[in-house]
Design a protein that fits this description.
The complex is a heterodimer of chains A (about 270) and B (about 160). Chain A contains twelve helices and 13 strands. By secondary structure, chain A is of the alpha+beta class. Chain A folds into two domains: about 40-155, Uridine Diphospho-n-acetylenolpyruvylglucosamine Reductase, domain 3; about 160-265, Enolase-like, domain 1 (2-Layer Sandwich), CATH 3.30.390. A five-stranded antiparallel beta sheet of chain A has the order 3-4-9-5-6. In chain A, helix 10 runs antiparallel to helix 11 (about 220-235) and helix 11 runs antiparallel to helix 12 (about 245-265). The longest helix of chain A is centred in the last third of the chain and has 23 residues, at about 245-265. In chain A, about 50% of the residues are buried. With about 160 residues, chain B is an alpha+beta fold. Chain B folds into two domains: about 1-75, Roll (Ubiquitin-like (UB roll)), CATH 3.10.20; about 85-160, [2Fe-2S]-binding domain (DNA polymerase, domain 1, Orthogonal Bundle), CATH 1.10.150.120. Chain B has helices spanning about 20-30, 85-90, 100-115, 125-130, 140-160, and strands at about 1-5, 10-15, 50, 55, 70. A five-stranded mixed beta sheet of chain B has the order 2-1-5-3-4, sandwiched between helices. In chain B, helix 2 packs across helix 5. The longest helix of chain B has 18 residues, at about 140-160. The radius of gyration of chain B is 16 Å and the shape is globular. The termini of chain B are far apart. The model of chain B has no long low-confidence stretch (mean pLDDT about 95). The chains are: A alpha+beta (about 270), B alpha+beta (about 160). The interface of A and B includes residues 15, 86, 90 and 171 of A.
């Protein structure tokens, strides 16, 4: 990678990069196929109070993972509505995050769960960045040309629950709007919350105001309706073939409320 | 660049442009025209082939990424002049009309039966989910679902010595 002076891209599942090349939106001089090292980067591990997902873990592996189903049911829900089974056989965690498509489901999931991306650079130097830093714009990430996303880490905290809600035009399509929610509830009080909306802004939209509004309170439908209203106000959709702005704001609010309610139900189960 | 892979059990080795897609390698280099090239955007599922037994979209895979792997195309289903049960099922249930989506549907159905723990108990939902990466614009999906179910039942009956 270093020898190509930034004129190269890592190729994993290829289900974002190859379409981008066909559209002439990506034009790398060289591709470095990392599929031969899949064995090293395809894993879902539970260790040291964390879940660690390797960057080359395929969508299908996340959909079928018992470890993820146990700790973060949101993965099953999001993976089930992400593209189709044939695409899920190839596409990867790292590819989804690094494509940074603001309408993509998994980036919302990782944001809601407060995941951290591990980037490895020349000489094996690693740095860890949160999703706030990771997404810097549409299709743009903090990953430098000589770095590779190798892993995403999630802390396992007590009382966790999570859910993903999506409205799309047809099965397997990109979202009109999607909402990803995670809650950690102890003693009847919300200790922590993550809420993200997809397809309603230039990047995956992190709804920080709604998170702050529910932390420290007891879960209730009324509280989640307020949080949904904040998501509706704070997102930044644009009108396109998938709908006008006011419609998307409305859906963002409804889906955020639903995702929070179901996340609470799964936390209290 | 020299790219080698096994297609339907035969080794192929060709010097190709690095940008060549797997679907074009199969059609133009290996000269196997059963695999079709449709939308070129990984939506339609016409180009699905099996790589090491898993269905993949060959229009969104570079030929070089298949280096050293085992590819199965629709031509690889028939053995010694006998149709694979999935092909027989499409015949029995009239699961094709124009035939354009058929190669992708057949290998996808083959993989579903091969990977399902109990193929005769597959729900319609499971079959529909499995083929949701493919689009059929003429027969509708009802007969395709029936064909896959027919193949699963046929194989189960054959395995228990019935039929």
């Amino acid at each position: 990678m270093a020898s190509h002076n930034g004129n190269a891209r890592f190729l994993a599942g290829g289900h974002s990069l190859i379409p981008m090349m066909k559209l002439r939106l990506a034009d790398p001089g060289h591709l470095i196929d990392i599929n031969p090292i899949e064995a090293e980067l395809n894993y879902i591990r539970e260790e040291g109070g964390e879940i660690r997902i390797g960057a080359m873990t395929r969508h299908r592996n996340m959909l079928e993972s018992d470890v993820l189903a146990k700790h973060f049911p949101i993965f099953f829900e999001a993976e089930h509505v992400l593209a189709d089974p044939v695409v899920r056989n190839r596409g990867t965690m790292g590819g989804s995050l690094c494509q940074a498509d603001p309408a993509e489901d998994l980036s919302g999931v990782v944001t809601a769960l407060k995941g951290e991306a591990v980037l490895r650079g020349p000489g094996g130097a690693e740095r860890v960045v949160g999703m706030e830093e990771f997404h810097i714009g549409p299709y743009m990430t903090a990953v430098q040309p000589d770095e590779l996303l190798i892993e995403v880490r999630f802390k396992v905290k007590p009382g966790g629950g999570s859910a993903h809600e999506k409205v799309e035009r047809r099965a397997g399509d990109f979202a009109i709007v999607a909402a990803s929610a995670a809650l950690w509830i102890e003693g009847g009080v919300i200790k922590d919350c993550g809420l993200a909306c997809s397809a309603v802004g230039p990047t995956t939209m992190h709804i920080g105001r709604a998170e702050a509004a529910v932390i420290g309170k007891a879960p209730s439908e009324e509280l989640f309706a307020q949080a949904g209203a904040m998501a509706s106000q704070d997102c930044s959709p644009s009108a396109d073939g998938r709908g006008p702005v006011d419609y998307k704001r409305h859906v963002a609010g409804v889906l955020s409320k639903r995702a929070l309610s179901r996340a609470a139900a799964s936390a209290l189960r | 660049m020299l790219v080698s892979m096994s297609i339907n059990g035969q080794t192929h080795s060709h010097d190709v442009e690095p940008r060549m897609l797997l679907v074009h390698y199969i059609r133009e280099m290996a000269e196997l025209h059963g695999t079709h090239w449709g939308c070129d955007t990984s939506n339609c599922g016409i180009c699905v082939v099996l790589m090491d037994g898993d269905p993949i979209k060959s229009c969104t895979t570079l030929a070089a990424m298949a280096e050293g792997h085992e590819i199965t195309t629709v031509e690889g289903l028939e053995k010694n002049g006998v149709l694979d049960p999935i092909q027989q099922g499409f015949h029995e249930m009239h699961a094709l009309q124009c035939g354009f989506c058929t190669p992708g549907m057949m290998v996808t159905g083959r993989a579903l039966i091969d990977q399902h723990p109990n193929p005769t108990q597959m729900t319609d939902y499971e079959i529909r989910e499995a083929i949701s990466g493919g689009l059929c614009r003429c027969t509708g999906y009802v007969n395709i679902v029936k064909a896959i179910r027919w193949a699963a039942a046929y194989e189960a009956a054959a395995a228990t010595g019935g039929n």
